[in-house]
Write a structure and sequence with these properties.
This protein is mainly alpha-helical and about 170 residues long. Helices cover about 45% and strands about 5% of the residues. The chain has six helices and two strands. Strands 1-2 form a two-stranded parallel sheet. Helix 6 links the parallel strand 1 and strand 2. Helix 5 crosses helix 6. The radius of gyration is 27 Å and the shape is elongated.
């Protein structure tokens, strides 16, 4: 058998091993028995299939981050950290994913910061709602923009619609 024939046969064997492993959920021992090779050879065939692009593994989860893009951003701009989440077609879902990722990041920061400056808005409000109870023990949270409101109504400045007419209280009688 010529060397090119051997390479082609080995590649077909790698494809078959990949099909059995990923599509039929066979173990490497079972695949070895089917293909009449050792379990170790099955492992090498699967690695070969990954190396040649026959197998492509994609993690699809709403909270999965885009690690390669994060690494590229940190390298290009000299950032300490960057968090990139997949962008869904719906703006509301995007806001939720950004908030979840931001909350996950805050929880993972080590050492735990003693001072945290925050902005305000709907997304940051959602970040706060995503944080687990007690995440900020010992953390001083300070607002870094905006102003003090004398409003007695709960909510955020972003929740007021600019097109909605302002409500006025009736003067006391």
């Amino acid at each position: 058998m010529a060397a090119t024939d051997t390479v082609a046969a080995n590649e077909l064997l790698a494809v078959r091993a990949a099909e059995l492993y990923y599509e039929e959920n066979k173990t490497q021992d079972e695949i070895g028995a089917i293909l009449r090779v050792t379990r170790w050879k099955v492992g090498r065939l699967l690695q070969q299939a990954r190396d040649r692009g026959i197998i492509r593994i994609e993690i699809v989860h709403p909270r999965a981050r885009r690690l390669s893009l994060e690494r590229e951003l940190t390298a290009r701009f000299g950032l300490r950290d960057a968090i990139v989440v997949p962008g869904p077609p719906d703006d509301r879902e995007l806001q939720a994913r950004v908030a979840e990722a931001a909350a996950d990041f805050l929880v993972s920061v080590r050492p735990i910061p003693r001072l945290l400056g925050v902005s305000w808005g709907r997304t940051l409000h959602q970040v706060a709602e995503c944080l687990p109870e007690g995440w900020s023990t010992g953390v001083n949270v300070v607002q870094i923009n905006g102003g003090v409101s004398l409003s007695k109504r709960p909510g955020t400045a972003a929740s007021a619609s600019p097109s909605a007419p302002a409500r006025r209280r009736a003067p006391p009688s």
